[in-house]
Specification:
Keywords: Chaperone. It comes from marine metagenome. Pfam families: Sdh5 (PF03937). With about 70 residues, the protein is an all-alpha fold. It has a single domain, classed as Flavinator of succinate dehydrogenase (DNA polymerase, domain 1). Helices cover about 80% and strands about 0% of the residues. It contains four helices and no strands. The longest helix is centred in the first third of the chain and has 25 residues. The termini are far apart.
Length: about 70
């Protein structure tokens, strides 16, 4: 039972991360990045694995100038 409950908590945690990343991908500060990252997030976040979410989160946390480079 603990494993099932832990799995449910993990799934909820991933959903919270997806929602947070969806918001941040649309609110980067520049319209260009909002469009690129926001549309990418809308399309792929719902099916991303935990590892994929980690990688997308690392991109979202980068400085805008580094993403453009």
């Amino acid at each position: 039972m603990l494993g099932h409950e832990g799995g449910r908590l993990m799934a909820e945690d991933l959903e919270v991360r997806r929602k947070r990343l969806r918001y941040h991908s649309w609110h980067r500060g520049t319209k260009e990045l909002d469009l690129v990252l926001g549309q990418f997030g809308e399309k792929y976040l719902p099916t991303m694995s935990e590892n994929d979410i980690d990688l997308f989160e690392a991109i979202i946390n980068q400085n805008e100038h580094d993403i453009y480079a």
